[in-house]
Amino acid sequence: MKNEEVGQLIKEYKETGEPLLTLLHKIQNLIPHNHLPAEVLKKVSRELKIPVSSLYSTASFYSMFSLKPRGKHIIRVCSSPPCKLEEYDSLIEAIGEKLNLSIGETTCDGQFTLEEQSCLGLCSLASVMMVDNDIYKNVTVTQLPEILDTYVEE
Amino acid sequence: MEKLFLKINGNEIEVEPGLTVLQVAKSFGIDIPTLCHHDQLSPIGACRLCVVETKQGTLQPACTLPATQGLEVETESPRVVEARKFILNLLFAERNHYCMFCEASGDCELQNMGYRYGIDHFAFSPYQTKFPTDFSHKYILLEHNRCILCRRCIRACSDLAGHYVLGMVNRGAHTMLSPDMESPLKASSCVSCGACAQVCPTGSLADKIGAFRGKADEMTKTKSVCANCSVGCGILAFTKANHLIKIWGEWESPVNHGILCELGRFSPLNEKRKRVLQPIIRQEGRREVISYQDAIKKATQKLKEAKNPGGIISPKTTNEALEAFNILFSTSLQSKNTGLMESYNEKAVKLSADGCLEDILIANAVVLYKVDPSTSHGVVASWVKKAVTKGAYLYIVTDEENSLSFYATETFKTSEADKLVNTLENSKKVVVILNPQVESADLEILKKVKAVFLPLYKSANSLGAIKKGLNGFFEKSDVALIVASDFSGDGNLLASLQDVSYLIVISNFVSPLTERANLIIPSATWLETSGTFTNLEGKTQDVSSIMEAPEGVKTDKAIIEDFMKALG
Amino acid sequence: MKIYRLHVLLSTDSRSILRGALEVETKLKEEIIKKGLENEVQILRTGGWGIEEGVQLTVYPGGLIYVINNVEDIPYLVEEHFLKGRPVKKLMYEIDAPAKVEMTAPIEEEIMKKQTRIILRNVGLINPEDIKEYIAHDGYQALAQVLSTMTPEQVISEIKASELSGRGGAGFPTGFKWELTAKAPAKPKYIICNADEGEPGTFKDRVIMEGDPHSIIESMAIAAYAVGANKGFIYVRGEYDLSIDRLNIAIKQSKEIGLLGNNILGTNFDFDVEVRIGAGSYVCGEETALMESLEGKRGEPRSKPPYPSTEGLWAKPTVINNVETLANIPLIILKGAEWYKGLGVEGSRGTKVFTLFGDVNAKGVIEVPFGFTLKELIYEIGYGIKGGKNLKLVQLGGSSGSFITPEHLDVPIDWNSVRKIGAGQGSGAILVLDETRCVIDFLKNLLAFFNHESCGKCVPCRVGLPKALDLLNRVTSGNVEIDELGFMEELANVMKNTSFCGLGQAAANQILESLKYFKSEFINHIETGYCPANKCGRL
Amino acid sequence: MAKVKIASTWLEACSGCHMSLLDMDERIVELIQAGVEFTSTPITDLKHPPEEGVDIGIIEGAIGTDLHEEEAKHLRKKCKILIAIGDCAVFGGIVTMRNYFSREEVLTRGYLETESTKDGKIPTSDELGKLLPKVKAVKDIVKVDFYIPGCPPPADSIYTALKELLGGRVPVLKGDLLKYD
After folding, report:
1. Nearest CA in chain B to C491
2. ∠B495-B499-B503 over CA atoms, to 5°?
3. Fewer CB atoms inside 10 A, N or C side of chain D?
4. Where residue C63 falls among pLDDT bands split at 50, 70, 90?
């Protein structure tokens, strides 16, 4: 666990009053597997004197935070109605078949997590999909293997 | 203030500003149904059952709708009733609300609403998802299948009790009640105050001991005062056939406003100690049951014959019993050799002229001076947590672990206690909570602090006893009378009795003290006694007997009066 | 100062970046150096034009717009146009519409023919990462004018006089909102820019933040001056990385030259802005939920009253305005309320940014004065329905918006006219669905979206949505009686009337409108299993 | 006066509701004198409602097997007014507790793993009903006209409902007549 870095971030929060959600984003980006582990939340709770239940309530509310470990790469398929008009269903199905995954799950090898993504404001380019921070537009099932293969570890 | 005129169900109503429609309706005897709302909790408008129809034709929740000039609402219009039925149908279908296997059936607010609105079947098929049931906790059962997510428990746990154990996890249809971070209740930071179970409208949070033992309206309810520490919390005890079923915090109590601690709410239900039920005499190494009259005769005879009769009384007995005890010794026995089962630093007692518990809630700074109220005076700990969440600073002086250190702004070693004086210099309102057994050196430091002082006496009537001049053990005695209540007598007490050749003990339970006694007389517990207690603030409150004492068992006061009668 | 012969504006908004803007930029630079034109041609990064094709290069003088779909075309373009001065026709922007529109230079005019750009005045024209460009386009002049010549009361009365109304969806008069906060006694006060643009189909705020971030900061400062606030927050969706970056750059630059901070422009007015990031919650677009989120809590809406104007962020008086609303402010100050009122129609003044997408030929962001009809927007600016099909339905205002059926295509889009047909213009998203789409499938997607985003606080929304979805699934599987449609309608009515916030109400509206306009489609699904999109078919 | 014919049946339930029906005691006689004829009921031991149908059908119990489903549908066809009586028929009731488990788990527990079982076997005879994946309330299978909840419903509730129906009125159960347990 990146204890020191997390500690440093919390210290900055205390000094600058940086907002909680931003702090949680930063911590999550630090932690391997893109999540907020219980020990880290406990540490935040202790340091900032926010009751652990309140912190957990907040963290669990937002879809960008994960409380359980995720894969190395996060596949987010935009699930807002405009994207669902296009390829959403077949994309989810194809990803499911290729990686043996359904929404919210992580592959056994810990490589990929599949998540629904709320509207990215790229509706004119539907269907939209993100892998980590890379955005793909007008995605079709045929392009999918190629996209995913670039993330598969050698 | 300008008066407001509004119309509810066509009736002109005149009210003061600042109220919600629900409050106004209630004060005029108009019953608007509620579920997520609870009179003690701040309204959140979540369940939408209390909707009323405005003149403009909108449905607004009465619990959060402010009463404004000229407002006109209907509380049972056809649209309102239709909406309420639908909301009930949605609630019934969200989780498992089959009444016939629920503990709360008969006391359930959801069920009552179903009856009130004639829900004779579920309009939606209920979900068949099984939610977890958490049996882990010693006293509290958390049954997610019955939860309607009204958040009363969360608000009680946080806003009323200050513990912040319960929260909501996830969102939307996946929202769940969660202790800490979805921990089992037992492993969570729950302090077993039980406020959650008291406010739960359904069978989702229940007190395990009282569960499945009948409906509340089949029980006798008695208001009284808790005897488990010196806070003097108001309680409402539920009994059935002289069995104690459950204890609630009394909302009306000016001391605790409905909040209790583990000791207050659950320990009396969990009483495992063995009662003394008959007078017992020990002669020539043998124990014999004797009659009450013989016991009184024997005891008074021994006391009369004594050179130096002595008496020690429990700080858990009523002011009336203490009074009788004082008269017994001063008048009937002509002895000044009396004492209390506890001893306090008189100077600490004097320090606390006018402190009260409410001061904690409005303090800017709170000091815990060599004291940890969590296990002994739970409601004080609650109040401290509430003060801190409202923004008060908390300073702890201790060399040991303190269960409230999470909330502390700073913790001082006892050797650094004098640092407090400077730290608190700029705080407007300071409350120092201290152990009344502190040394005089501590008091020298504390005297320099401008503050309200609250000594945490151990027992329900410690202050009452001190005020009657009782404090600490007697010096020396040959025949001694101990009115023990439920005290078992610690090593110090037993040591102080070394020279006593004949020991008479009036006690609730079998204990090392009764083992040492030559004559034991059974007494009624506080649950079986009426009278008054004086709490740590100096408030004298009425204690009512909640249960009947076992046959032939009398209260301390009655026994002492029988002593006086026998002594003439 | 260097003088360039040609200025190339390169679209680098997030949608262009997706289409390879950064690769185009590298290649352009490479080729320009190769041809030795580095002192003659300047490449400037800007926002996008609102064209949903390739990477757009606008070349000045001339205002020719090229759409680059393949970097391999760049050497030719540089050689022909930049070196030899011969515009490359085959790379120019053309609209793929049935009636092919011949583009004649300057193409800027073609795109702008019907549009009026006030809110998007700088988008596509300036480098959003350079404050100097904003200033060169009259940026921060309105702030300077306000601080040096106007009292806060005058600012508020000017905004009131302009009749500017909120562009977030509710259309509340902005000046009035400011006045309420200005008059509230409690202190401190706050300005919040609501940039939590989560409404599916809406990306206008993103275009502004990515293309012209300073306009938001300037407007917030003006608002702060008007109401007496010294602190502002821009609450941006966590998903909008580029917006967050550009806003942060803009704030940093403004601070550096004293347009934010203490004693702005030598006056005693202090103002500071911070960007705060959301974390994935649609309901946080609701103003009180947004405030809860800003305070670090669950983004659940609060009961109203009290309203944010008097008890908002940390229970202090707060002005909360949408990005698009704010972007209007500087021009209103500079050109005056009277000028602004000259745009649009009675009751709806100024312009509105729409996002046009779905089954339409030209998708994108457009800005027109209020009062255009949907027909004009779809058939003239959007060049009609893809593949020449018939229009089935327009969803106006995003997923929480209203259904507009073909018979209402001539209704002008302004607050009053739209209200008359029982709809709302919402955020300005225009989703066009053609005749082959299935309404029930669409409705299911809408409800699934709302179900995912419901905060779970109130019963009608938390439980009503899954129950409505259950019912819909039974409709598509044919496992339902026709009279249960009436029950679904009752459910939707209760949800609409009793939900805590707009989310549950909007979701219910989608059900009600689907049933109102497309009941026969429901009945067809139930009775015959027929689905126009062949999506819900019982196979 | 023409006879009002009543048929009742007992699906997945404990029979408590029929006991409650009998608890009407002499009021049964009163009903019969008023023109009621009980045709097929578990009490009269007639298995099938008369071919020409009945006026009132009463179902106790939830729908747990394919046979229950068939029987409910059959009675629905044969009656004019269908009443669901008791919590199992109305809500699904206590028998829905098995919905938390799979069919296999239920059968294994029931026939193989109970403490008193020796050499147990899961019955497979075709004559036995097959468990549906989930137990359902009657209204989830067929249209129900009136509901009398309760576990069991008070005899007074059943009596009142029948009396009201005989009088041509729509029964509304209120107060002590409406209970869930």
Report:
1. B86
2. 85
3. N
4. low
